[in-house]
Amino acid sequence: MSLADAAAAPGRGGLGGFAAQAAILGFGVLLWAVSRWYPADMPAIGPYDFSATIYLAVAFTGFWYLRGLARSAPADRPAAWRIASFLAGLGLLYLVVQTGLEYPMQRMFFLHRIQHVVLHHIGPVLIGLSMAGPVILRGAPRGLGLIAASRPMRAVMRVIQHPVPATLLFSGSFYFWLYPPLHFVAMLNRPLYELMNWTMAVDGILFWAMVLDTRPFPLAHARFGTRAALAVAVMFPQIVLGAIITFSTRDLYPYYAYCGRYFPSISAVTDQQIGGIVIWIPPAMMSVLGLLVVLGNMNRAEVKARAGRR
After folding, report:
1. pTM of the model
2. Domain limits for position 251
3. DSSP state of 9
4. Is 135 within 8 Å of 67 (Cβ atoms)?
5. Is 141 exposed, middle or buried (0-12, 13-18, 19+ CB in 10 A)?
6. Would the N or C end of the chain have less CB density within 10 A of its end CB?
7. How far, in Å, CA of 128 to CA of 208, rounded?
């Protein structure tokens, strides 16, 4: 089913919409109150610094997905591994920005790099593999589905997910936020810090959803060969940036000394070296995985096309 069909599909049951959404909002208020007035009592699984926008985005997306599954006909229901992939990807995104893990990730460069690799690569790859868009729209409010299927939104997506802008945005965002003077300010300015994390996650999801799309061109925004090339192409800027940081012999990111390193026994240069390896190796592994998935999708599409011609 296409996104437009999913947006137009009427609801066929669900999970008790009003009560569930009220519970989501109520739990969000509870998290906000505890983080504001009783931060010492917040468990590690709770937010270190509560963000209403992140909480609502993740909670409602997960709710719409589950409601979309309940509304899906058996023929439209995704495979169990795709469901697990989506829930794991969404959970990982939440884990690195809205739990106690965020505290050490703000105080060690290499941990912060792990946070951004999850936001930009691992979580988005899992979400891209899930092909969750139609399911989410099936469970989302009808107005949101109509916006997603509208001509202006489709035009914006054609630009953002065109191979050239998509690649420039994907690689450029990583470089942009690691420019040392900007990185120092972003880590100290909460709104800028949240913007940094949002851009990494959204850009990663848009890129990998385009690359890992199972549909052939023109239903997808690029041909399979182009997508395979993109999965490989984005690997090299990451390798270059990781190598520059790994082999640097001076402290490029003084913010972590300024705020106090979570592990004071690890020096600035060692912290950077580990962080450079995190930039270097895991994204390259995600690119290889992406390439294999694209080749598999291309093979299945060719087999289906040949069967259709026969």
Report:
1. 0.91
2. 3-309
3. P
4. no
5. middle
6. C
7. 5
